[in-house]
Amino acid sequence: MSRTTDILLTALAPAIWGSTYLVTTEALPAGYPVTLAALRALPAGLLLLAVTRCLPPRAWLGRTFLLGSFNFALFWSLLFVAAYRLPGGVAATLGALQAIMVILMAHGWLGTPIRAGAVAAAASGVLGVALLLIGPEAALDPVGIAAGLGGAASMAAGTVLSRKWQPPVSALSFTAWQLTAGGLILLPLALIMEPALPPLTATNLAGLAWLGLIGAAATYALWFRGIARIEPGAVSMLGMMSPVTAVLLGWVWLGQSLTPLQGLGAAIVLGSVWAGQRANRPSASIPSLRSPRTQSGLA
Question: C or N: which end of the chain has fewer Cβ atoms within 10 Å?
Answer without folding.
Answer: N
